[in-house]
Amino acid sequence: MTDVDPEQLSAEIRTFISKRTSLQLATHDKHKQLNVSYAPFAVMGEQFYILISQLARHCSNLQEVPESSIMLIEDETQCHNPFARKRLIYQVSAHSIERGSASWDEGMAALIERFGPFAKQLSSLADFELFRLKVKDGQYVKGFGRAFSLTGNDLSEVDDLMGQDKKSAR
């Protein structure tokens, strides 16, 4: 068994997320036609906010089938081995946020804080829709033999997938 400190791992994951500005998004429509795309994001707790055009296929996919997967991955130029890039994968449920609601204001404030006036400009376009991606569970891979399952209401339950060492940050 390996010794995993869930609080330290959680801090490492928060740092990893903060160093990325876009996420990869895997979606499908009601006919199970797959699509992969990306979107710039802002994060608050275990929720990601993305602003995407209704013209994009992944927007209609999220409207039809809100269950999807996202991935944040280490930059290729910064990794030691392309076969073992650090990555964070979450299963999420997407929720479209109504324009003018308190949730819209909160999500847009986070995006504008992160991306500046361009995010505000996009939000004024009628075809752009704001989604909140609520994280259900995840997996953090730090390299070969260093993978962790993240579960629980606040993702504080950590399973070392190699050592099967389940711990909780609480």
Strand content bin: 35-45%
Overall, the morphology is globular
How far from one another are the termini?
Answer: 20 Å
Count of strand segments: 10
Q: Taking all residues together, what is the mean pLDDT? A: 89
Question: Which bin fits the share of residues in helices?
Answer: 10-25%
Order of helices and strands: HEEEEHEEHHEEEE
Q: Tell me the Rg in angstroms.
A: 17 Å
How many DSSP helices? 4
> Major sheet, described briefly?
10 strands, antiparallel
Derived from helix and strand composition plus strand pairing, the structural class reads alpha+beta
Could you give a quick summary of the protein structure above?
The protein is 25% helix and 42% strand. The protein has helices at 6-18, 57-64, 102-115, 117-123; strands spanning 22-28, 34-40, 42-44, 47-53, 67-73, 87-97, 128-143, 146-151, 157-160, 165-168. The longest helix is centred in the middle third of the chain and has 14 residues, at 102-115.
How does this model look, in words?
25% of the residues lie in helices and 42% in strands. The radius of gyration is 17 Å and the shape is globular. Strand 9 (157-160) and strand 10 form a beta hairpin. The chain starts with 5 loop residues before the first helix and ends with a strand. The protein is of the alpha+beta class and 170 residues long. Strands 1, 2, 3, 4, 5, 6, 7, 8, 9 and 10 form a 10-stranded antiparallel sheet that branches.
